[in-house]
Amino acid sequence: MTRRIPRRLARAPIPMYRHGLGWLLGPRLAMIEHRGRRSGQPRHVVLEVLERDAGTLVVVSGYGRTSQWFRNIEVHPDVRIWTGRWRGVPGRAEILSAGDSHDQLERYRDRHPRAAANLGRSLAMPDLTNAGPLAPDVGLRLPVVRIRYPEEPP
Description:
This protein is α+β, with helices and mostly antiparallel strands. It has one domain (7-148): Pnp Oxidase, Chain A. It has 6 helices and 6 strands. A hairpin with a 6-residue loop joins strand 1 and strand 2. The longest helix has 14 residues, at 98-111. It is globular and about 40 Å long. It starts with 6 loop residues before the first helix and ends in a 6-residue tail after the last strand.
């Protein structure tokens, strides 16, 4: 079972992104605006970025498939992204398969062992803290989402 970060702490970066100061938090975090699956109201979450390529941002759902933001994008995959100096760039979320999620998490751990270990400790997920092979079910427990956006955001 993953350990919960206190809500206040998890939501603390949101005002920084709203005021255009997201760049102070570095490239490893992004704020995602999604729509409530029932209300349709905009919701915000700050997430760890696993990988970033031209036109693609890959994030992880640290609290699994029961996270509210994750459940919301299953219903409404259109999102907006705040990261660095980008503000409200439109994108579309795609939930990766368990196998692809496993591969993404393994690549992240290999490329950024210290950051992966910190993430693993904060979520009480020892899979990410050691150097051995990841458990086969890690892609089910930590689903990964790919967000595609225009390569040249406004």
